[in-house]
Specification:
Layout (H helix, E strand, L loop, with lengths): L27 H12 L7 E6 L2 H6 L8 E6 L5 E3 L9 E6 L9 E6 L14 E3 L3 E8 L5
Antiparallel strand pairs: 1-2, 2-7, 3-6, 4-5, 4-7
Length: 145
């Protein structure tokens, strides 16, 4: 194991040969309904939900992932500290926005690992977020995109 990039010990056999299916993205209507429910403070909505990423929003941030899901994160009403780490070999990028509308989306965080094979994605202590619904776009960084 590398001492420079340590990976915590865990039982890898638990995760071998498990069935997997690509997540089904929520429809625009279902995502909107869920966001409205979350804004009202309903704890049942809390969690991560795949939603489709529009081509215009993906292009705005240089993502080449048209038709791929982003993650809609419905957060609890308590204070939330957003932290990120990467276990991937290539350079990773995570963009957190407050809307999927490319005209009104505000960037909450735009983080990337500083170099390949690095676990640091964003500040070590993270950031405190005060929004109930956020959308996360993640990907590998290749060249200029």
């Amino acid at each position: 194991m590398s001492k420079r990039f340590p990976v915590p010990e865990f039982d890898r056999d638990l995760f071998k040969n498990l069935p997997w299916a690509e997540p089904r993205a929520l429809s625009a209507a279902a995502a909107s309904s869920l966001a409205t429910t979350a804004q009202k403070g309903d704890a049942k909505a809390v969690g991560g939900h795949p939603v489709l990423l529009g081509a215009e929003l993906a292009a705005k941030f240089g993502f080449h992932m048209e038709g791929k899901p982003a993650i809609m994160c419905v957060l609890p009403t308590a204070e939330v500290r957003l932290m990120a780490r990467s276990w991937a070999w290539p350079i990773q990028r995570a963009v957190v926005v407050d809307s999927l509308d490319p005209k009104t989306a505000n960037v909450v965080a735009d983080w990337h690992t500083p170099r390949p094979m690095n676990t640091r994605l964003g500040p070590d202590a993270g950031i405190v977020v005060d929004k109930k619904v956020l959308y996360v776009l993640c990907g590998h960084q290749y060249g200029d995109h």
